[in-house]
Write a structure and sequence with these properties.
Largest interface: A-B, 67 and 52 residues
Distance between the termini of chain A: 30 Å
Number of helices of chain A: 20
Distance between the termini of chain B: 70 Å
Shape of chain B: globular
Shape of chain A: globular
Largest sheet of chain B: none
Largest sheet of chain A: 3 strands, antiparallel
Radius of gyration of chain A: 22 Å
Helix content of chain A: over 70%
Strand order of the largest sheet of chain A: 1-2-3
Helix content of chain B: over 70%
Order of helices and strands of chain B: HHHHHHH
Strand content of chain B: under 5%
Oligomer: heterodimer
Number of helices of chain B: 7
Radius of gyration of chain B: 20 Å
Number of strands of chain B: 0
Structural class of chain A: mainly alpha
Structural class of chain B: mainly alpha
Order of helices and strands of chain A: HHHEEHHEHHHHHHHHHHHHHHH
Number of domains of chain B: 1
Number of strands of chain A: 3
Amino acid sequence: MILLLLGLPALAGVAAFLLRRDAARRALLVAAAMAHAGLAASCWWVRPAPLPSGWLALDAAGLLFLTLTSVLFLASAIYAVEYLRREVRGRRADFVEGALFSNAPEAAFTGCLLFFLATMTLVCVSRHLGILWVAVEATTLASAPLIYFHRHHRSLEATWKYLVICSVGIGLALLGTLCLAVAAASPEGGAASMVLDDLLARGASLQPDWLRLAFLLLLVGYGTKMGLAPLHTWLPDAHSESPSLVSALLSGALLNCAFLAVMRSQQVLDAGGQGALGRHLLVTFGLASMALAGVFVLGQTDYKRMLAYSSVEHMGILALGVGLGAGAARGAMLHAVNHSLAKGVMFLVAGNILHAYRTKAVAGVRGLVRVLPFSGPLWIAGMLAVTGSPPFGPFLSEFTILSGALAQGRGVVAAIYLACLAVVFVGMGQTVLRMGQGPAPADPPDSGAAESWTSVVVPGALAAIVLALGLYVPPDLDALLREAALLVGGA
Amino acid sequence: MTGWLDTLLVLIVLTNLKLLGSGRLGGCIRVVAAQGILLGGLPLLAAGEVPGTRALLLSAAGVGLKGIVFPWLLLRALREVKVQREVRPFLGYTASMLLGGGVLGVALWASARMPLPPAVRSSLLVPVALATMLTGLLVVVSRSKAITQVLGYLVFENGIYAFGVGIAPDAPVLVELGILLDVFVAVFVMGITIFHISREFDDIDTEQLSALRDWRPAPGSDGQGTAP
């Protein structure tokens, strides 16, 4: 079952490189995404058996993030069909600077998209910390060509920064993994198993100095990939320059995968009896990310960069929730779900806006609600959801984290948390409402082509789920969230 | 055996310093190739008296990739892009080498403070691995060409490899090969990106890659604020 989950997108990716006809390749993309989502859904009824070596298995946290990845990928794949159809062929003028550029071959784009899904699946199912590292690095390599789909110098710059910063960052995580192997080596010189379950079982016999060093390196390494401030520098560039559906996947699925790797590190640290260090660091990194995002969201002139900084903020919230533990950890798990879906809405709608107005500048977009009658309201609804307004899901999860902080008597943390949320709300609200209001531009943008059936229904469906999660959390999901939160000291 | 191991480690340190002092891109690539071949010997010497199949396999894969395939890829990329062959450092060669020496001192000091497992066969291993990683990072941040950044990443990765081989000699081969494969694909993807950078900018200097930022000097004058 697990091998099927991994093999399906990988094989489909190879097939995508070989298929010559665009229509067949797009059908394959959607079919593979649907099959993957079906397989992931079936794991909810029957949890697949681990592989005999214990290297690959699906626990609660893995299943949660696998499902999120799969749902978001399905949404992006359906959106991609229309997106790729309306892409202009051949060389054309870049709307920012007027220089000519062309697209990467569509076969390579679709193939890398499917490989990206395969590598993210591997992150979710790996129980061996070495395999986990290989999988996280592989996600970087599979997604780098996706950012460089529109071949102009800005996307190239974003790709290069992404490759170099993330590769070096994840290199530190590899060093951390090796340090963990030293911590786990028995004094007699026997081989250390790097399977998560063995490490957790070893518990207090892990060498404390090496364990602490290992955690630090793992946090910095995977934290770079997750976009925790001040290690987030690749994130705004990559998110703003890649095609919108890729941004949605980077923000909603890839960052979660890195977060899962951080959670695994915290699990081992907890087992070794050093959990307090990790929690302290996670709270600090979390608040720093939220504060930094607040500064950069205010007065941001590029709406895709604004969304990217919002992702930094939400990763900070996740780190904070896990750092606080107890009730806040369950809030963080729920928040991961809400953030992925809400950010999917925002980035996909941003793709529609970009297509209609041909600019990423906030100042160039006016009268959105009039010009794009579906995307406009969705853009505003998505903003309300992402900033944690009731009745959307993120309100519930952010409130759970707040009450978790207050229940532990962490008043200062709660105050900074609320202040950052308020700043981001004001910053995003101001920008998004300014784009939505006002008269339609005199030269009417290309609204018909921007709003096709799928390009509205897909983000609309995601928005509906976010709204539903704010009103009612299904018992099955709640049980899974509790189980996942328990892994990192939640309640 | 420890004598041979120590000699190898000292040679690796010398390649680090040579890299920091080299002014030509082709020369830098050859130094990194030499370091890769030296590293290939590490699994054989660190494993114990008689190297097993595992050590032989890792050694062959290491020499093949780090000593031959990577340098070949990078030299090819260098030929393709026809750029100026100087390194153009942000930090001068003498200062770089002095820093390289300082890095070695820091590595020796830091690794003396951690309790080492008995599997480590030479007290020089951890400091050399650490110094190699730091040298790699130094090259990434202090050199401006895209190719030198890849070289820095490779040297950084070499340091981690040395650390891993020396300190955890029992890790599963499959995982180690997975790691090597990942590094291989990373260099491959970076090589392709370098090719695109040179085509886009007629140079591979990363100082050109500075268009993306949050606040621009004069709003509106950069073309961002206007729709076509």
